[in-house]
Amino acid sequence: MQARQIRLANIYNAAAEIFCHKGYDATTLGEIAKAVNLTKAGLYHYFQTKEELLFSMVNYAMDLVDYHVIDPVRDIPDPRDRLRAMTANYVNLIMGNGGYLTRTIDESRRLQRTRSRRVQRRRRAFYDFVRGTIQEAKDLGALPDTNVSMATLSFFGIILYMAEWYRPTGALSRAEVAEQIVRITVDRMLLGEGRGLPHRLNFYELDKLRDARPNAAYTPHSGVRKRS
Amino acid sequence: MQARQIRLANIYNAAAEIFCHKGYDATTLGEIAKAVNLTKAGLYHYFQTKEELLFSMVNYAMDLVDYHVIDPVRDIPDPRDRLRAMTANYVNLIMGNGGYLTRTIDESRRLQRTRSRRVQRRRRAFYDFVRGTIQEAKDLGALPDTNVSMATLSFFGIILYMAEWYRPTGALSRAEVAEQIVRITVDRMLLGEGRGLPHRLNFYELDKLRDARPNAAYTPHSGVRKRS
Fold this sequence. Notes:
Two copies of one chain form a homodimer. With 228 residues, chain A is mainly α. Chain A is built from nine helices and no strands. Residues 194-206 and 208-228 of chain A have low confidence and may be disordered. The first copy, chain A, has two domains: 1-48, Homeodomain-like (Arc Repressor Mutant, subunit A); 59-211, Tetracycline Repressor, domain 2. In chain A, helix 6 (113-139) crosses helix 7 and helix 7 packs antiparallel against helix 8. Chain A starts with a helix and ends in a 17-residue tail after the last helix. The interface between A and B is large, with 39 and 39 residues.
């Protein structure tokens, strides 16, 4: 089973990268098979159609978010600490193998209607979790005169755009990028503590993630199952 | 000439909307012609290929940025006021007809290499203008311990994501959305004045823009010219 999960993760990552460079429509299953050293028949063993592959990989991407971003922070009582840890986790996922996969989620409008709706529900649950945490911070006095939905959308705008610009070969290390984005997004934009209150980041979640090897395959707990 | 510009703007806007919904690769020139009530031959009169149309419309989108976002603020001496006005202008452009066009700029990687490079240079010039203004604000004491490039990319992340989520039918009016985004992006994230210093927005640029009818056709000063 573990070997199958690793192979699937390889397929998802390769397909995501090709989709981002060539576009979903212009990519064939044959090209994806070639990129992961499978025959076309070998890939058909896992997915009968490109749309089925897309649905499965988008669910995998959302599984990664649940597993690496949300689940580890759910029980942090202070919403401000929860925001910091969640942001560090999310940024780390994007800088790891999650960047291409994250961008692929946008293609879910190409899915069949019921599948597209299912993906939308999962994205909505993630949005609601982030929005709820920001609302809790506002209830503690953060974000005066600021609309919580706008703040939440701005949060996602910053992080999702990272999937477009982040390169591992950039001038800043991964830890420095994460620290800057937490400072900009949480401490400045959401909590307004940027001035005069240099906040020492707690990187415990980030370190835990590194130990968990985010590039290794992760067994989805709610992805599609292949029809048997 | 004016009629030609209006017709071109209509083609760009219709094509951008179709590209966003169907994807660039899956869209045909025939579909675009139909959307603007032209025959296929009528559209060919303007563009021989889809790639030529894409190049022309991306340049038009960048023209809109120059004309509506950058040019009106160039001479504002205080970088903080320049940031506020520029952000209000940019948000207003995205909420107008600029949303689909902005998203289409991402497709410029499908262009021929020399054309793609030309678009990249224009995007880079815009980025450099924003980054330079943020650097000036930092020199005045804003953004302690914050990397200016990261702050600039975060700025673009928030605004570009608006093109994905903004709907004219949303709960907030256009002016309210603009005010919120300026507060979140500039006053909180970049200048850190969100707490205790409610900043009254100066909407002079926004009002000027409304008068200038951003939905009307704009004569590009650096777009492609049709080969004669």
